[in-house]
Amino acid sequence: MTTQPSKATLLDLLQQAYLDENAFLQELDETERTAIGTPEYWSAKDHIAHMTFWRQQVVLSLAAVVQHQEQPLNAKSVEENNAATFEEQHLRPWSDILSEYQQTYADLTKLTAQLSQEDLTDSQCFDWLPEGNALYTRLIGHCYEHPQEHLAQYYLDRHDLSRATQIRETCANRVLQAEMPDFMKGNILYNLACFYALQNQLEKAATTLQEALTLTPTLKEWSLSDPDLSALRTR
Predict the structure, then answer these.
(1) What is the pLDDT of residues 11-41, one digit of tens each?
(2) What domains, with CATH codes, occur in the chain?
(3) Residue 35 burial (C-beta neighbours within 10 Å; 0-12, 13-18, 19+)
């Protein structure tokens, strides 16, 4: 029988991400909080606004489930949404960005708590999700792992590879230690392998990729052409 995450496990992961993000925010000084970024070099504010936008999309989706309404439509591509969010948000005051971020997290956890275990884990429950996907995969992807990737990217951009690596490894280890299907553990290990490869940590990348493919064999074909793994394939 495939292990499925409990609602408590999912809420705990969301809380852990939020605690990590708040620790990050507490470390920022006034200059870092108010910095204006560029499309090529995001400020802390840009990362928080971006994370908030994608959490808001999940909040809208969960609200529709709870209220038995049709799913909201977003016709833009990921790239278009990201560019539009940056343009709309990067000059807003830090206090507004922070307030919206906090409210979105509160909405997210409140709605998640209202869903049933079946709502969260039954892959046949909602026909608007990609085939075979359960709702919890969106929570982990958009609301847990994705924000952690952005915290790591902030430090990478500022040449702190050690801190970025710690964030990515801690993020993955929490999922590995949780009650979670093998394919989810494989997915998060695969993303960690890509991170290692992009940072030229090729031994770690090779070992982690093998672990990922053992847990999620369906990733094998994509791994053969994934540009994030090109350094690993050509070593």
Answers:
(1) 999 999 999 999 999 999 999 999 999 999 9
(2) 7-180 (1.20.120.450)
(3) middle
